[in-house]
């Protein structure tokens, strides 16, 4: 850990860098993509889609932008990066500016069909053939027998109490808000440093354990670790951080014993739904693939399809499975996860993070994931699958 005096000296020595970092902090906090890409009328359009016998395309509505995209683009590219003389740091911040400029383009084209989809591709990419093969490999395994832990009997208020109890072992505040505009049952809002819970749903015991280890054990841990860093960009996210962060989050589910074959299949369905976008599938076509061909129940198939088609084609979900594979391989090699918990960081920038740490511009973690050191899962099928992903 560095002292306040050392941090003041750093800010003096790297004055231009800290000025740019502070500027980016003010800009980036205004553009949380997930707060814009989740439709406002999910339940209404779900019922309309079901009533049409899965033929009528949903017409989703999205939140209005709270910023001027053109002005924000101009401000991003107005940063005086030429003042940062260190080549490694200069390149890192150049990548960061382009990453968030692409994010702005994503947000300003939400709801504009293929225009949004192509912008999404620039940020999140599309499933590779290897990803698709891994997804189909997982789906070949026979479903687990139903259990009481999978029954959705807990209310959102009971979920809130569960998450509050779970977070007692972490030394950071847990702010929880209820909302109806979520495609998932719960998610972390990085901008609000809070856990959002979907109001009009119920939860199973396994789901609560899964969400707690995923959302609190990783997403909030990296949020608050990022906030403790000298450079604010750690709390917002380095380029390509989603695959790493979601991989860590699902790995946290695995280590805690929460991960099930059913959940792993959900990630596989997401890959196939994302892959259907590049093939030009409509919402109804993707739904038919997941519900009609793969026989997933219609409620879950709708959610999978919604997550892929929201905004006009959103490929973020394809990264959960590939991220898990990369983090699991790291675990098998015995490598520490601590560097990846320093903020919203990426495996792709591991060497740059080490470089910043050597310069005193980044530091170790203030909060650790509680299950990464002790594997609680004894599911042999999951072990076999994860060891055999390509």
Notes on the structure:
Helix 6 (87-108) packs antiparallel against helix 7, helix 13 (261-278) packs across helix 15 (298-309) and helix 14 packs antiparallel against helix 15. The chain contains 18 helices and three strands. A three-stranded mixed beta sheet has the order 1-3-2, covered by helices on one side. It is globular, with a radius of gyration of 21 Å. It has one domain (4-387). The longest helix has 23 residues, at 205-227. The protein has 390 residues and is mainly alpha-helical. The model has no long low-confidence stretch (mean pLDDT 94). It has helices at residues 4-13, 15-28, 34-37, 42-51, 69-76, 87-108, 114-124, 129-139, 156-166, 205-227, 233-236, 241-256, 261-278, 283-293, 298-309, 319-332, 350-359, 380-387, and strands at 175-179, 186-189, 194-198.
Summarize the structure.
With 390 residues, this protein is mainly α. The chain has 18 helices and 3 strands. A hairpin with a 4-residue loop joins strand 2 (186-189) and strand 3 (194-198).
Q: Over all CA atoms, what is the radius of gyration?
A: 21 Å
The description of the largest β-sheet is: 3 strands, mixed
Strand fraction equals under 5%
Number of strands: 3
- Integer tally of domains: 1
Secondary-structure class: mainly alpha
Keywords summarizing the entry:
390 residues, mainly alpha, three-stranded mixed beta sheet, 4% strand, 3 strands
């Amino acid at each position: 850990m560095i002292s306040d005096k050392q941090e003041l000296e750093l800010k003096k020595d790297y004055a231009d860098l800290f000025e740019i970092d502070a500027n980016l902090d003010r800009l980036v906090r205004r553009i949380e993509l997930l707060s814009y890409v989740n439709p406002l009328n999910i339940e209404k359009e779900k019922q309309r889609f079901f009533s049409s016998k899965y033929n009528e395309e949903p017409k989703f509505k999205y939140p209005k932008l709270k910023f001027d995209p053109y002005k924000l683009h101009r401000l991003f590219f107005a940063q005086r990066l030429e003042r940062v003389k260190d080549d490694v740091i200069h390149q890192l911040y150049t990548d960061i500016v382009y990453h968030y400029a692409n994010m702005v383009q994503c947000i300003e084209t939400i709801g504009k069909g293929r225009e949004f989809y192509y912008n999404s591709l620039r940020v999140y990419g599309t499933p590779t053939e290897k990803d698709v093969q891994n997804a189909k490999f997982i789906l070949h395994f026979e479903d687990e027998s139903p259990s009481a832990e999978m029954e959705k009997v807990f209310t959102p208020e009971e979920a809130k109490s569960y998450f509050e109890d779970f977070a007692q072992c972490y030394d950071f505040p847990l702010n929880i808000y209820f909302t109806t505009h979520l495609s998932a049952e719960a998610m972390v809002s990085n901008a609000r440093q809070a856990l959002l819970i979907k109001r009009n749903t119920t939860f199973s015991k396994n789901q609560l354990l899964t969400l707690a280890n995923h959302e609190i054990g990783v997403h909030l841990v990296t949020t608050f670790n990022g906030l403790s860093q000298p450079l604010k960009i750690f709390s917002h996210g380095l380029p390509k951080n989603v695959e790493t962060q979601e991989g860590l989050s699902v790995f946290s589910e695995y280590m805690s014993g929460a991960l099930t074959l059913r959940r792993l299949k959900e990630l596989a369905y997401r890959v196939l739904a994302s892959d259907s976008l590049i093939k030009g599938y409509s919402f109804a076509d993707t739904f038919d693939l997941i519900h009609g061909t793969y026989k997933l129940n219609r409620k879950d198939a709708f959610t999978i399809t919604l997550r892929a088609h929201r905004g006009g084609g959103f490929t973020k979900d394809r990264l959960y499975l590939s991220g898990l594979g990369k983090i699991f391989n790291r675990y098998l090699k015995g490598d520490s996860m601590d560097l990846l918990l320093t903020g919203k960081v990426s495996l792709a920038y591991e060497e740059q993070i080490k470089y910043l740490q050597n310069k005193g511009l980044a530091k170790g973690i203030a909060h650790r994931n509680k299950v990464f050191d002790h594997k609680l899962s004894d599911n042999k099928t999951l072990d076999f699958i994860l060891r055999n992903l390509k």
